[in-house]
Amino acid sequence: MRIESRYNGPAGSGNGGWSAGVFAAEAGGTGPVEVTLRRPPPLETELSLLDGEVRDPSGELVAEVRPAGVVDAVVPPVDRETAVAAAARYPGLVEHPFPRCYVCGPQRADGLRIFPGRLPDGRTAAPFRAPEQVSGATVWAALDCPGGWSVLAPGRPYLLGRIAAVVAALPGPGDECVVTGALLGVDGRKALVHTSLYGPDGALLGAARATWIAR
Questions:
Q1: Which of 36, 41, 123, 135 is least buried, going by the fewest C-beta atoms within 10 A?
Q2: Which Gene3D superfamilies does the UniProt record give (predicted)?
């Protein structure tokens, strides 16, 4: 496995959702998978998976992968117009801890450009146009940052620590989708969030629960 440099999150490391999706695909299986990141995923580095552990060439532990059981983490959808209006209020357009993030970085013209803004009830929502090349990792990535932005605030950066996801179907290239996120609660430095991705017809494509850690 290799996380290409274009799939970065924070500078110099892989986007958590994309990386977790790559690790989950390598693990195989058909059910939901949970990935715990033990360190920022390194870029352009050959990684190996053995007995549920992702390690770099030096043997350092990068992540742990295991079956997740039931992922009951569905966040209700909104229509695309509501998602577009929410994205116009995306706080990352003004202040972003990782402005070149592949998923939600406003400085990435070649990224997914998912800009989650807050809804009146506290959920986040954003439109998402699927890229021309779509994989399971694309869905994992889309399910990552919208949850984080339900707790992120100016001067309060968080990083993904653990994510469990189920992918029901892949969007088609160019599909106009909607992603929603919700904050379930905060315990010290940990925040529990849920995210969901919906296709153009409103069908649920994927859902995830995740733990984000305050830096």
A1: 135
A2: Hotdog Thioesterase
Third-level CATH fold of 80-94+115-214? Thiol Ester Dehydrase; Chain A (3.10.129)
Distance CA 16, CA 72 (A): 20
Residues 210 and 75 sit within 8 Å (Cβ to Cβ)? no
Q: What is the pLDDT of residue 116?
A: 98
Unique residue bearing structure tokens 């117009």: 81
Beta strands in 108-189 (DSSP E): 117-118, 124-129, 158-167, 176-187
> Tell me: the pLDDT tens digits for 158-178?
999 999 999 999 999 999 999
List the strands of the sheet with 48-50, edge to edge. Answer: 48-50, 53-55, 61-67, 33-37, 158-167, 204-214, 190-198, 176-187, 124-129, 117-118
Place of tokens 């994989």: 135
Q: Which two tokens stand for residue 58?
A: 């030096």
Distance CA 28, CA 11 (A): 29
- Residue for token pair 């569905």: 74
Output the pLDDT for position 101: 98
Please tell me which residue, 142 or 70, carries the higher pLDDT value: 142
* Residue 4 backbone phi and psi in degrees, to 5: -65, 150
From the list 81, 70, 215, the residue with the least C-alpha distance to 151 is 215
